[in-house]
Amino acid sequence: MARAVTPARKLGFTIASWTVGLVIFFPILWTFITSFKSEGDAVAIPPLFVNFHWTLENYVLVNQRSDYLLHFWNSVVISVGSTFLALVIAIPAAWAMAFVPGKRTKDVLMWMLSTKMMPAVGVLIPIYLMFKNTGLLDTLTGLVIIMTLINLPILIWMLYTYFKEIPGEILEAARMDGADLKSEVLYILTPMAIPGIASTMLLNIILAWNEAFWTLMLTSSQAAPLTQFIASYSSPEGLFYAKLSAASTMAIAPILILGWFSQKQLVRGLTFGAVK
Amino acid sequence: MTSTLRALFGACAVAALATVATAETTITVATVNNGDMIRMQGLMSDFYAKHPDIKVNWVTLEENVLRQKVTTDIATKGGQYDVMTIGTYEVPIWGKQGWLESLNDLPASWDANDILPAIRGGLTVDGKLYAAPFYGESSMVMYRTDLMKKAGLTMPEKPTWADISKAADAMTDKAAGIYGICLRGKAGWGENMAFLTATANSFGASWFDMKWNAQFNGDAWKKTLTYYVDLMHKDGPPGASNNGFNENLALFQQGKCGMWIDATVAASFVSDPKASKVAADVGYALAPDNGLGKRGNWLWAWSLAIPAGTKHADAAKTFVDWATSKDYLSLVASKEGWANVPPGTRKSLYANPEYAKVPFAKMTLDSINSADPTHPTVNPVPYVGVQFVAIPEFQGIANDVGQQFSAALAGTTSVDDALKNAQKLTTTAMTKAGYIK
């Protein structure tokens, strides 16, 4: 028998949830507030929360100094492009592993995951040389390829988990009705797995948007995304926290808005198949 | 017919020449995010007016990200950058490897003899200049004149470490939130180890002897670290083991530090009334010594270098010539005032009576002149570099040693254990690297 939820218990959970949420969100809130301070106010002791002279000066300076739109566009192309390319590879791969598993399917899955365990810097030089020799340094094509490869294991694992939740009998019934492989994947499997695919896609876009090692190392001026935009405002010798906060706010705003509007799909996808 | 052909060929030749004359060469310049470099980007109209055939793409990055990127690019001959901003640590190593273009052939008007000898020495390998200094810095004591007066003390122009302890004790008023001294404590080769290596030089210590044996088991290092930890525990701010340049700058600007020993470039920040609450009450003195002939100040120069094998070497040299010339210093002075001129590179700047009026100009020059990267220590050493050892392994080793010394400051380990560990890990790394046979 389910336990009754008393109002006091409900209140306790609500307060706890809000507290955890605020703690997690606080660094973003503080970055946002700092972006409206002067550099002097940004390092004031004790810290100033709202009682300071609010200014848009940092946003003006950042826009004067940097080409935000170029960096933004590069981030969009890299994250969306790599996500779609990865999905094209990951959906058939996950289908094969979920519905026609072989003896070594589990080993292959584990091997794919193991590629994520090596520190990225360990393969920096070989990849840098490959990019140099193929003319891919500082190109969007190169970044889309590398981001696809990096996130592919996670995509396949997530999709594999979602596909496993779909009863094989439905696919068998489709086959009995004469569906070929293409129709089975396109018209039966994909529509049923849409919440899972959508959440995988959104998560991958967020991961690719935030990736800051390869996007910094393999670009210089033409293909540099927003990660480089932020890095250009950080300095160990000089207090530029307010400008850095303005640049960070501008860099995270698009992905924050995307996350806000798609949170239902994200949660639905992440809990897909959790309760039968 | 012949005349028509001639006219046609002539027209083609003129068209070809015109194309050559207007062909644009694009160079990519990688640089650090600091005030002087950003100011240069704002003054590029002067460069374009003089060199309309060269376009400059800027890649501005945080220092450590930039270092990782340009090191990867130059080691793999990636060719992403035509001009790189590097420091006095990289130049001797990369110059020896043959990774950089020599700048000995810069035009006579650039006047290499005008560069301050200490800076020029740090950028030269086997007689070849491998980078042109954009701005130079040393370290010095910045102190609160009002607090010194209140304590009834006067800061000597050339203080000893004993003077520093005395002043720190006198100015500390923990109840009022004022700490006598703020020093770097955050672990890192460019953080606490820059300060402690330079300080150790003035205590007679060094990283290695002439056979590359680590020297942390010596008496001089024990005196250095004991002095630093005791002073900071007594008169330093809480949580000092997390403080680097920026944290100490914020504390000093907010009036929380009696003294701060750090980069000379900080003088322009602490004396800026818009950013600093104590701008009117800052005095400057040379970094302290112990009477052993070496002061505890460092030497650094952010410099422009051209990677060997760049396809645009001529355009890159034209840019380097412009950015590090005497004319550029005059340009900054005319547009932004003398206080904003990149300091620490040219003798002519310090001979200029207008620049002499800048409050920290003389102390910056004296500090730079008192550092000698080729003879940094009391006893002879096999390396170049004041606050670093110019070998590729240094960054990794000094980061590890920095962790030990930061832990000693935080009180999680003792001075003796920190030194013992530093000796062990340095010896292991140097043996692995083949320095110790």
Automatic annotation (TrEMBL), chain B:
InterPro entries registered for this protein in UniProt: Bact_solute-bd_prot1, SBP
Coiled coil: none
PANTHER family: ARABINOSE-BINDING PROTEIN-RELATED, DIACETYLCHITOBIOSE BINDING PROTEIN DASA
This protein's name: Putative ABC transporter-binding protein
The species this protein was found in: mine drainage metagenome
